[in-house]
Amino acid sequence: MILYTPLSESDIFPTESQDFQKYEMVNLQGKMVQVERLENGTCRIVQLLSTDPQDFLNEQFMPGSMVSSHEIIG
Amino acid sequence: MTEKDNTPKKEQGDDQSTQSSLVQKIQQLGQSSVAAAPDSNIHVLPIIGQIEGHIQLPPQNKTTKYEHLIPQIIAVEQNPKIEGLIVVLNTVGGDVEAGLALSEMLASISKPTVSIVLGGGHSIGVPIAVSADYSFIAPTATMTIHPIRLTGLVIGVPQTFEYLDKMQERVIQFVINHSNIKEEKFKELMFEKGNLTRDIGTNVVGTDAVDYGLIDGIGGVKEAMAKLNELIEHNKSDGTMIQ
Description:
A: 74 residues, 2 helices, 12% helix, B: 20% strand, globular, YlzJ-like family protein (chain A), YlzJ (chain A), protease (chain B), ATP-dependent Clp protease proteolytic subunit (chain B)
């Protein structure tokens, strides 16, 4: 099926609200990180939000690494 | 986590408090923050993907949210240890008002700022790139300059058009005030026909952006760091002279 339309894809196929809820910004050791909540209760780091370049060398904040829910605040 | 680990240790070893404090120390040192590198005096602000403003985009989009960046810019301005800010841009553009807000914030920061455009700094990425004290563009990077538009929406009343026209004027004024490009040249690039598919505007490649005066220089990380350090030194020597 091809849709010829000037509308954007998200206008035609709206994103389900649960897709938004999977991701959230949390505080991990004083740094803001975006995590994806997984079904087994752990969280996968999606993105680190920091301006300090040294934070990006810290393996703990590496995107894809897992953190357990009780380590995070918020 | 630290608290959880420490409580049982405290309970057992009241008589051996010195030992338990040692254990605590070892536990604390066992955490990853031990080998902390010295605080960097230069901080980095990446502006990647779409600039997300008033409307939340679906999660599959890679976005930079302006409500995240604005507090960070304030933090950089306030922290006395931070002496310079480097802005790394690889953006397709996005929300005009959010982009202009970020540009104004970056332009009004008191610390030296240098921007690098890598890959692309399109659309509203242009004012953000020029808002820094000195801007660099990678030779292969491009910047798309085009008029403001609403994707797929039909303009119903003349007022909508006037509103968009005013918004566009704000973008133009910001760019010509913060770069060396002439207003005529910028408008010419913006309204050029036949360069972009189904759109008016121009895709300006790195070297051309410097020739037009839009960007200050060609370069990458090395040049940007050198320039920023130079600006920091200049800033410091200025400060001592006033005192």
